[in-house]
Amino acid sequence: MAKTRSRRFRAARETIDRETQYPPADAVALLKQTAGAKFDETVELHVRLGVNVRHADEQLRGTLALPNGLGKDVSIAVFAEGDAARAATDAGADHVGAADLAAKVEEGWTDFDVAIATPALMGPVVSKLGRVLGPQGKMPNPKVGTVTDDVAKAVAEAKTGKVEYRTDRQAVIHMAIGKASFSERALLENYAAVIDEIVRAKPAAAKGRYLLSITLTTTMGPGIKVDTGVQREAEILGLAVDEAGGNGAGPAAEETPQAEAVPADEPTAEEPAGQPEAAPGDSE
Asked: Which of 88, 135, 212, 246 has the highest Cβ tally under 10 A?
């Protein structure tokens, strides 16, 4: 049965040429024009890659810091005890605990965005939470810096906009890069940071065309195709017009952690990998 779209969605879709790959600056401008929901919509970026995710050496997984953050307060849960727990609290963690916090999560509570754990608690306490946190992408992982003894640093980085990226089973990376209320410049800076990191992290084993498609959209809006040939930060930001009112995303973090690409986990029998499929976005 065909899905019925709202009048607002159909009107927004009519302003977009679905066969055109827009320059990043034009795509962002069009995205802001079509963001008409009554709430501040999240801006989503979907990048389809020419990699074979059935091969572990062609999977991507890593972290990077968005220059202008995500535009929301990041809620953080830290599994730690003693001095580490106190350091996490002082750094601004929203929920700190050990077995008590794990029991709460086991019961189904996941009202946080990022989970961080000390290595000492991973085995006896946190490892059993994989069934709950794994499907939501919240399981602490040493490869992305969320299993660490320096919990204060991990909390600070998460609070200032450090985000994780990874390829899914269709070789697509899905990421939020801000809010519709951000200025065009702020969104472009975040977009440029993500594209630059994905290009930098290209697996050596990947052959042929790498960036197959890029789609920008808002929570309730249609997909907008972006020109995959514009990849360098200077090219992306050079197409943007500076705005006198600032970046619209609030003050940037004083210290921006460097992006860090890490090897992805090998696919399991429970989660078979697949070949790249059509890019996300509006399919009508």
From this structure: 88
